[in-house]
Amino acid sequence: MKETKWWLRDGARFKHVKRPYDIDTVKRLRGSVKIEYSLAKIAAEKLWDKLHTKKYVRALGALTGNQAMQQAKAGLDSVYLSGWQVAGDANDSLQMYPDQSLYAVGSVPTIVKRINNTFQRADQIQTM
To answer: Which keywords label this protein (predicted)?
Structure first.
């Protein structure tokens, strides 16, 4: 809990966020089961570090796990998933839409899951 208090109060990420409640209230309401999303946490921490230590963060758009993996192998700092590309070419509705978020709500999470699965599999192979 000390770590959470520090992160919310002193951490740079939430420096300008005002909260009308305290950490004890949050702890009481969240229950006892701690849910963690390992891939999201690791990726967010890496991106946060890059955004604060590099002059810029290089990225190209990827619609498939293989494209993302090739970008990582080429040394790019991050992978970008473009909403307009999903609308036009890779949505779950199998239609072409304008860039107005008209496609099925699960379209982007599906692609992110494919990309994450590709990175997980590459990691499994590399650590065998």
So the answer is: Lyase
